[in-house]
Amino acid sequence: MAELSPQYLQQLTENIKSWGKALGFQQVGICDVDLSRHETALQRWLDKGMHGDMEYMAAHGMKRARPAELQPGTVRVISVRMDYLPPDAGFARNLKNKLSGYISRYALGRDYHKLMRQRLKKLGQKIEQHVSDLAFRPFVDSAPVLEHAVAEKAGLGWTGKHSLTLNREAGSWFFLGELFINLPLPVDQPVEEGCGSCNACITICPTQAIVEPYVVDARRCISYLTIELKGAIPESLRPLMGNRIYGCDDCQLVCPWNRYAHLTDEADFHPRQQLQGKALLELFSWDEETFLRNTEGSPIRRIGFQRWQRNIAVALGNAPYAAEITHALATAYDKSSELVQEHIQWALGQQRQKQRAANERQTQRLIRVIEKGLPRDA
User: Fold this and answer.
1) 250 is in an annotated binding site
2) pTM score of the predicted model
3) 249 annotated ligand binder
4) According to the annotation, is 205 in a ligand binding site?
5) Same domain, yes or no, for 328 and 270?
6) Residue 248 assigned to a binding site
7) Which of 53, 179, 211, 284 has the maximal Cβ count within 10 Å?
8) Cα separation of 238 and 324, whole Å?
């Protein structure tokens, strides 16, 4: 690459940030490729098996913390933020209704991966118009990249105790993407950490997956259990999942910084009506063709129909007792896979326990009514 003057690189950096915002990114930051301070913590996390069944995490090893090994020639990473919080998100309402399925906010709209990757590619092509021998490569959850460490170093925010990136003006309701380049641009400075003594995210986690500040044991995380885990969900964790059938937002919902989150202008991130706040029984009634049709272009499709049914079966087991639920579970049993059958059996057991408890409560109420009507000397 021909040598470029510091003045030219500074002006180009300002242009890149302007171009990025014109493409729909709310923030653009730049950092170097030295992430070595994260390697010890990453290796410790892997050694403890906290990545669960995500074998790709261990397979790539330290390449995740070494951008230049992932993409030879890379000297800078452009980190971008794209907000995704829509109007009328309905978080609390959907969580409280135990008969409806809760889907993580990010997954209710269009799959962000392709959208952001296309715009990052456009940003790279725009830079290429000014630097002919530029080499670049966009990433959006598509390769072993420590995206939160990169965002932190590029000044987009700090890493919260839930391990997500937090921003003082935008909370955490945003996606991250990266553009690896071979251009020695001026870098941004990290911002001051803002969690302080707050432990709200650690306290609220339904499965206590945040085992210590900044460390999440994926094996206990509901997002992992409902999305990444391919096999059976551990029985001890099923009752803690409630009606969460795809992902979990609890640690973000409770974070005080999210009061500053901005609503998105991206229509693609607005929730689809066939997914938001729908009854569990309705979602469980879908056949595979309906599932594929209703999740077209959605990140939910990647888990497949079998895991979709598995997750909903658990939520139905956690729902209040209803004859309609036991009927739906029993009816689906014979035509389900072994994986789903295991979770249906568990859910039926949960429903029966609740039915017995409900009958016992009703009996006790009747006894009290009868006793109140008896004479004192009876």
Assistant:
1) no
2) 0.92
3) yes
4) yes
5) no
6) yes
7) 179
8) 21
Domain boundary among 224, 252, 278: 278
Amino acid in the structure at residue 81: R
Residue 61 scores a pLDDT above 80: no
More confident residue, 91 or 34: 34
On whether 31 is known to bind a ligand per the annotation, the reply is no
Catalytic residues: 141
Angle, alpha carbons 275-261-30 (nearest 5°): 105
The stretch 10-16 carries a mean pLDDT of 97
320 & 292 share domain: yes
Domain that holds residue 309: 280-378
Alpha-carbon span 72 to 59, nearest angstrom = 19
